Structures are given as structure tokens and as C-alpha cells.
Amino acid sequence: MTTVELTRFRVLPEKTDELLAARPEMLKDFEADRAGFLGARLVRLPDNEWLDIVEWATPEAFAESREKGPNQPGIARFFAAIDSLVVAEEGVLAE
């Protein structure tokens, strides 16, 4: 079953353009460096909050990605635009 990573975070208004500009490179880095990465969607919420919905082939693939952290330039650039983490959760896609 597909593992889903749900990460809700805040971005300061002056960093929004930076976050959005970094997103394509971050996704390319994930595709090149993260085994089991299936795709991601970024949702803009009210009050400077965002929700990143990332799909992984297995829970192990997600765990390995967490261990790597921002090890690639595009990933690091995206993470640097984030002001604070609200919540991070893991679930299984119910198809």
C-alpha cells in the first residue's frame, strides 16, 4: 500500500516566492535521490500555512527519505523557505 506523508508548515509571506521557486528543483532532487518517491502535491492554506502531500511506495522508502534530510541543493532550498513546522503525519492511502 502507498504510504502518504502529510506535512503542514508555515511560510512567512516574504518567503512565499522563494518556496514556490524552489519547488520544481526539490521535486527533481526527490526523483533522482529518493527511492520509492511517487509524487507530491503542495496545497496553500489560509494564514500562511501549506500542506505537502507526498506519496511513497513503502513506509521504508519514506523512512529512508527522512534519514537523508535536505541532502540535495533543491531540497535544502525548499526547506530553508519554511518558517515552522505545524504537524507531520504518516498514513496509508485508502484506495
TrEMBL record:
Residues 6-66 form the ABM domain. This is Quinol monooxygenase YgiN. The lineage of its organism: Bacteria, Bacillati, Actinomycetota, Actinomycetes, Propionibacteriales. One of its GO terms (molecular function) is monooxygenase activity. The keyword Oxidoreductase applies. InterPro entries: ABM_dom, Dimeric_a/b-barrel. Pfam families: ABM. Keywords: Monooxygenase, Oxidoreductase. It comes from the Bacteria.
